[in-house]
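Write out a record, fold above all:
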Amino acid sequence: MSGEGPQGPFALSRAGALRTAFACCAAAILAVLAVQLARVDGSVGRPYGPDRLIESVDDHADPATGLPENAATSARKALTMRPIDGRAYRVLGQVAMATGDDAGAGKLLGIATERWPRDRMAQALLAQRALVDNDSVAAVTHLDALLRVAPDIRAPVFAQMLTLLEFPEFRAALIDRVGMDPPWRAALVRTLRAGDTPPGPALAMLDELATRHPLKDDELQARVALLARGGSPQVARAAWISSLDPAVRGAAKPVFDGGFEHPDISEGFAWQIRSMPGVVIGPDAGNPHSGNHSLAIAFSGRAVQFAHVRQPLALPAGTWRLRASADNRTGSTRPFVWQLTCEGSKDRVAELALPQSRGWQTVEGDFAINANCAGQQLLLRHTGRNLTERQMRGTLYVDDVEIVRVAGG
């Protein structure tokens, strides 16, 4: 690491932003570590052994005031009992940092991680020094070690790492490390996919990762979700379709698998079915309208507010026709409806009521999508307004749900 400022790819105009962001990230990670170490029981270990000495220092350390006054004495005493104890070198490195001896601190912390690589605070301190020094490669190396030895703090560490993805230097170093398939790779992907993650930097990372290594299934699905959330549902759906087995891509019409023949596919733009008490939902081979299956929704007599079958869509602007078949054996006094809304809005674009009697019947209706409705949600719901109307017993079968463009629309 160098203390001379940004070098190589770090442009001078961005140095201040980089240093500020890196320093804030490092401070946040260290704050997490301080809380975690404060939870360590200082009574663990022999009463006067090196474990007790080091843990006593950590227990009495304070993020605001620093180490206790006897920190250096305790660390040296621990080394006389156990010369290879890397934690003692880490404490001495912290003391050196507090007194402004940057070179000595770096040397001592390096010895600490060599002799005791599982010391999470030593790894965090070295990550901090690397971040402040704009050394992304070294920072990610130590963050990797920290995430391996301290899986319990992955969530807050990931949260801080995500704030640095906008910087290409950090992103490239992280991609290099992810390509080595560390044990925290899947957990990071789940964080990338989370609803509060800004899609732009996360997408940039996955796109760059894809140029070096084939994306895993969870990474492909995360990319699809980020594309959709970033306002590109049609691009997201195309990416999702390309990730499917070629044998099932034929089902990828405007409504994917409208005949419910592929219940094993539930990610991306497939059917998303949520379970609920009093209702059993699944494919049924005994009563299809066409093909081999229909979707059977069996109600046990409980009052339920049903809205548990949906599919995200990516229809372009134009005039469309929604068509669906149903065999309603519930005896409900209120109809089930297929409802279409724009993504992120409760405004209804279309609503198609299903028949309320037994036997297969097909209904259809036209609707228009405007340019401001880039993504949509197709939802099957029951229109019961009170407990009496929502109490149902029997089975609703649905099949052959499709959306086709109207000629000239």
About this structure: Confidence is low (pLDDT under 50) at residues 1-15, 38-47. The two ends are 62 Å apart (CA to CA). The first strand starts at residue 272 and ends at 273. The chain has 14 helices and ten strands.
